[in-house]
Amino acid sequence: MSYISNDIDLKDLRHKHPNDISEVICELNPKERILAFLLLPGDLKAEVFTYFNHNVQEEILKELGSTETANILENMAPDDRTEIFENFPDLLIKESINLLSPEEKSIALNLLGYPEKSIARIMTPYYIQVKKGWTVTQALENIRRYGKKAETLNHVYVVDKENKLIDDIRIGKLLMADEEQTIESLMDYHFVSLTTTMNRDEAIEQFNKYDRAVMPVVSEKGVLVGIVTFDDIFDEIERRDTEDIQKFGGLEALELSYTETPLLTLVRKRASVLLILFLGEMLTASAMGFFEEEISQAVVLALFIPLIISSGGNSGSQAATLIVRAMAIKELGIKDWWYVMRKEVLSGLMLGLILGTVGFLRIVIWQKAGFYNYGEYASLIGLTVGLSLIGIVLWGTLSGSMIPFLLQKLGLDPATSSAPFVATLVDVTGLIIYFTIAASILSGTLL
């Protein structure tokens, strides 16, 4: 059978990129999906399998026989296989690992034994290592012997008798060297590496700092145990940024993608934060209740409440976004809080003056043009709104910029100082600022 669903030619499909093949297969119904996957060539199955989402991977493994499953898992890169196991039920992990050959089973168990977020979980043990006493000819022979299984051939890694990493050499430098030269003659002993227990976020920083496509991973004692490629790190960058965006949007980070997350889990992740924000916004009603007398005496003040609190929330959200991103890329650290505060005070004042001026002119012009009658004290109302905007925008800017530093100081993720949280805080305090200024300016007139 070369056709599935009468419109998919498997012969044409085999010439596509594995990711494209996985997308086509995922569009099929479950029964045809299994059949199409089984009809792929053996060496292609493992590559395509890594691009399926976790639900499809689990579905296929449950349908396949033990021999077919073993072949797929055996031919997968160790880091891809570890990522799959992390999202499988414990029973399926145990059954799958037991199908592997002794060598691959040992590798799988070793990778799963490292801390969950450590860089070692995504490393591969397939690389080329050489000894410093070897000649270039011996090193090239070693590459020809083991290179097919290596994840990448960008570098060869020089180790001592105890397998400790002592240098790395670019493959281009090795190819251009004289065949009788020793590896030691090509060494400069300048190399960078990651440790097995290093957090993945720290590893991302190292890749960015040294601009490397691949980095070796060593144990705490310096023993070379694997390598991590930029492809693996790029996946981690995407996950981290997605998590930060979700937190900044005012919800708990999702463990799976949006399409894979069950409805009840999605509701739970969103409801918890929404409830906290709702309780926070209830303080806004309390603040308005506290100034009920002022509102009743000058109802016109209520017209500008949405304008006042939204301006403060927007300025706070802008500041929080800028600072959280700057902290994420290590442009700013906790020690920079004073620099940021000084800069944001000036920014807040300037932005407040712009909005305050526009607010004041809007009221005065509307009154003069007859668009709306604010009464005989229109200019004072305009002054109240203008000064309130200056104070509230300044406060929102300071809040949005300082909260990320406070959270980081407390050991929390700055991304949780999301726009909704900053906006809620500024809503409540903004009303207090607004009515306090109104009481000062309008006392003896409207109030």
UniProtKB/TrEMBL annotation:
The keyword Transport applies. It is found in: Cell membrane; Membrane. NCBIfam families: mgtE. Its main location: membrane. It is a multi-pass membrane protein. Residues 187-243 form the CBS domain. CDD domains: CBS_pair_Mg_transporter. Belongs to the SLC41A transporter family. Keywords: CBS domain, Cell membrane, Magnesium, Membrane, Metal-binding, Transmembrane, Transmembrane helix, Transport. The chain crosses the membrane at residues 273-291, 297-324, 345-365, 377-398, 419-442. This is Magnesium transporter MgtE. Homodimer. Acts as a magnesium transporter. It comes from Pontibacter silvestris. InterPro entries: CBS_dom, CBS_dom_sf, Mg_transptr_MgtE_intracell_dom, MgtE_N_sf, MgtE_transporter, SLC41_membr_dom, SLC41_membr_dom_sf. SUPFAM superfamilies: CBS-domain pair (SSF54631), MgtE membrane domain-like (SSF161093), MgtE N-terminal domain-like (SSF158791). The keyword Metal-binding applies.
